[in-house]
Prior knowledge:
With 96 residues, the chain is of the alpha+beta class. It is 64% helix and 12% strand. The protein has a two-stranded antiparallel sheet with strand order 1-2.
Amino acid sequence: MGHFILKHRGVMVRRNWYSSQPASGAQPSMHREFYKSFGYPVLKVFMGAVFTYQLLYWTWMKLESLEAKKDKNDEIASLEQQLRDLKIRKGEPNKD
Length: 96
């Protein structure tokens, strides 16, 4: 009641009677009809993709920064150990 089914290129679309024909009687643009019907789902998928990309990018950057921090801490620990070894060889007391 008040609806009809539009079939275009194998896609079935349920439309209201009042939105099927423009007031002037000209054929509606297929692009306009497509985005009128599928604009929200397309936007929703696009926003989901952007969100997923940003989440993966942020996670990757966080892991990179944690790896760089660990590498620096390992290098500092290695240099401190070398310093202790050099002090022991020189015979200086360890002040740790």
